[in-house]
Amino acid sequence: MPKFHIQKGDVKSRARAGTIVTAHGIIETPAFIPVATKATVKSLTPEMVGQAVQAQAVLANTYHLYLQPGTEIIQKAGGLGKFMNWSGPTFTDSGGFQAFSLGAAFGRRMGKVWGAEERSRNNELWIGTNTNVIPPNSLFIIPNSDSLASIDDDGVTFRSVLDGSTHRFTPEISIDIQHAIGADIIFAFDECAAPDADYQYQKRAMDRTHDWAERCTRQHEAGIMNKELGGNKNTSSLSPQALFGIVQGGRHKDLRQESARIIGSMDFDGFGIGGSFDKDDIATAVGWVTAILPEEKPRHLLGIGEPMDLVLGIEQGIDTFDCVAPTRLGRFGTAYTASGRINLLNLRFVADMSPLDHDCHCYSCSNFTRAYIAHLFRAKEMLAATLASIHNLHFLIDITNRAREAILNGSFQEFKEKLLK
């Protein structure tokens, strides 16, 4: 069973440096976890993820792997890590986010993080004609499409994004699928409500998440018992997986605190913080939750990964993060730099012989210029997405690594102020 140890905390905040020990290696926290949705980090080989990016773990998507190639194939291969040739720790989400992305959000330009701009265009469709300006927390969605997910108190009914066939996820089914996939850390099935859902619906979704969390713990315990008794000879996991419960409640303080108390009281190995947030004050909502969750267990912030959000999340006691933004932005020509994002399709980069970021020492910045990578994008060469994604992932991982070092040497506040400036 994965174990969490806090090595040192910041005296002026909730930030802490620690280790999560799994059957497939140690995760030094704080850590950013790249998303390997379909058992691959898009455009990168596993060796690139481990060496050029220096990632410690990856997170895959239960819903998408269930549809393709199917859990039986992954189980036959020996589990997620062996299937994708990744020897380090692995996470899987529960499929709960797809209840939102294929349900309330489907057909609209809507992500889980909203600000004034998003609220003002509440009902607009995302046409997606300019793929160079996809917001990092938005979903690239087919316009004018019917919802592909419907939710009831027992679970979620999906229509496949591949062929339209109907599938059913319940808390029990989600846990069984994740057991078969064999990741080291798995998440309870939850409902991520839309950011424009009213208070009553956010509470209903939260209550449903709490009910599903209890069902997940029972199914997880039954699965572990089955393995110990030898009832599942084909299991890919050599030791029991860690189950994280998920806190919901949207952008409402009372709901977030209630959810943190209820989920925090359950027998989970760690906790995820999910749901919708206010773009302008994610850290405050995270702080409502981490002030209540048990100190001795790890906390994961689901689907949040902008540079500033990482630092502010760490300050509030978050240990691990995941987000598709660095590879999504990278595929469309956007790169992180110390002074903000740059779009390599802009004309000014055609003859720019400097690296993507002067302070970065990743493989892409050490060997290639902005002009070269911009040329690759204009020529529609596949290497463009690879080099930009390596840099973006390394950029975020370097932030969490430096935050960890600062916590350990007692200079986290100075690190935070310098970085945010």
From TrEMBL:
Keywords recorded for this protein, A-Z: Glycosyltransferase, Metal-binding, Queuosine biosynthesis, Transferase, tRNA processing, Zinc
Ranges of residues in domain tRNA-guanine(15) transglycosylase-like: 14-103, 145-420
One GO cellular component term noted in the UniProt record for this chain: cytosol
Catalytic reaction(s) noted: 7-aminomethyl-7-carbaguanine + guanosine(34) in tRNA = 7-aminomethyl-7-carbaguanosine(34) in tRNA + guanine
Pfam families xref list: TGT (PF01702)
GO molecular function: metal ion binding; tRNA-guanosine(34) queuine transglycosylase activity
Binding site residues for substrate: 93-97, 190, 248, 275
UniProt-annotated binding residues for Zn(2+): 360, 362, 365, 391
Cofactor binding annotation: Binds 1 zinc ion per subunit.
InterPro entries in UniProt: ArchSynthase1/Queuine_TRR, TGT, TGT-like_sf, tRNA_ribo_trans-like
E.C. numbers: 2.4.2.29
Annotated region described as RNA binding, given as residue ranges: 303-309, 327-331
Cofactor: Zn(2+)
Biological processes, Gene Ontology terms: tRNA queuosine(34) biosynthetic process
Keyword Zinc included in the entry's annotation: yes
Catalytic site positions: 93 (proton acceptor), 322 (nucleophile)
Pathway the protein takes part in: tRNA modification; tRNA-queuosine biosynthesis
Family in the record: Belongs to the queuine tRNA-ribosyltransferase family.
SUBUNIT field: Homodimer. Within each dimer, one monomer is responsible for RNA recognition and catalysis, while the other monomer binds to the replacement base PreQ1.
HAMAP family associated with the record: Q_tRNA_Tgt
Its biological purpose: Catalyzes the base-exchange of a guanine (G) residue with the queuine precursor 7-aminomethyl-7-deazaguanine (PreQ1) at position 34 (anticodon wobble position) in tRNAs with GU(N) anticodons (tRNA-Asp, -Asn, -His and -Tyr). Catalysis occurs through a double-displacement mechanism. The nucleophile active site attacks the C1' of nucleotide 34 to detach the guanine base from the RNA, forming a covalent enzyme-RNA intermediate. The proton acceptor active site deprotonates the incoming PreQ1, allowing a nucleophilic attack on the C1' of the ribose to form the product.
Protein name: Queuine tRNA-ribosyltransferase
Organism for this UniProt entry: Candidatus Taylorbacteria bacterium RIFCSPHIGHO2_02_FULL_44_12
Record lineage: Bacteria, Candidatus Tayloriibacteriota
